[in-house]
């Protein structure tokens, strides 16, 4: 509430509400999200495209300077319409709360956010040196002078639209860094070993849903695995039964 993400609107109002879910990350941090599965079922999908990771990674080719920035709680920087607020209410022991900002967990949030970011940086994206993947902002350059100029352009727009950036997640002018689940530079592309460890440390899959989740995680790195389709074929068959 102190951050202006939601407000209390009542206690026993006869309104459609959902319950919150606490998600705990591998680093011990947690985030509260609404259980919007029922709402998502009735939501018309927004087909706005999210960039393909493997195609996006080719933009790092020849880059000698790479800067990665991350929007601070990016979804929460989007103000909701009054109609959306009424649909995005959560109930806890102390009352009913209404989101004022776009929450995590709603079906079209990633597509909406990607569209917004692409609208802010159309020229930079068309020139091929800026990468936007939802709330990740990455600037690539072959020379130091170009990098400074491009950073200035991006930061000016960030200020103009009053976007907040997480400084602790910013990495300025690196020759190699972790981005989009990979270790990238202008000369090579590797796998982020921490991301691989997260997959390996998960319990053995028991259900179709868990198998699909595993295949999604493994498939993210399929370009690094010879004969991935052949190896994973039997698992895909299990999901189809």
Automatic annotation (TrEMBL):
PROSITE patterns: RT_POL. It holds the Pfam family RVT_1. This is Reverse transcriptase domain-containing protein. CDD domains: RT_LTR (cd01647). Residues 1-184 form the Reverse transcriptase domain. Signal peptide: none annotated. InterPro entries: DNA/RNA_pol_sf, Rev_trsase/Diguanyl_cyclase, RT_dom, Viral_Replic_Matur_Polypro. It comes from the Eukaryota.
């Amino acid at each position: 509430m102190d951050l202006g993400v939601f407000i209390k609107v009542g206690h026993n109002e006869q309104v459609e509400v959902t319950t919150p879910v606490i998600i705990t990350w591998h680093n011990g941090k947690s985030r509260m999200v609404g259980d919007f599965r029922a709402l998502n079922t009735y939501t018309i999908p927004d087909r706005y495209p999210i960039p393909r990771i493997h195609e996006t990674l080719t933009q790092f080719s020849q880059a000698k300077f790479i800067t990665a920035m991350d929007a601070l709680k990016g979804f929460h920087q989007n103000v909701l319409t009054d109609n959306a607020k009424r649909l995005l209410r959560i109930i806890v022991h102390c009352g009913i709360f209404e989101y004022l900002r776009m929450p995590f967990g709603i079906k079209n949030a990633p597509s909406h956010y990607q569209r917004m970011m692409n609208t802010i940086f159309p020229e930079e994206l068309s020139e091929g040196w800026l990468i936007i993947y939802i709330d990740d902002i990455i600037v690539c350059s072959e020379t130091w002078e170009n990098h400074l100029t491009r950073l200035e352009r991006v930061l000016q727009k960030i200020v103009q639209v009053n976007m907040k950036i997480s400084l602790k997640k910013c990495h300025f002018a690196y020759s190699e860094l972790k981005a989009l689940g990979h270790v990238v530079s202008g000369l090579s592309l590797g796998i982020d070993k921490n991301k691989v460890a997260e997959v390996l440390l998960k319990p053995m899959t028991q259900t179709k849903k868990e198998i699909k989740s595993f295949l999604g995680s493994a498939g993210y790195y399929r370009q690094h695995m010879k004969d991935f389709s052949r190896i994973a074929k039997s698992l895909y068959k299990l999901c189809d039964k």
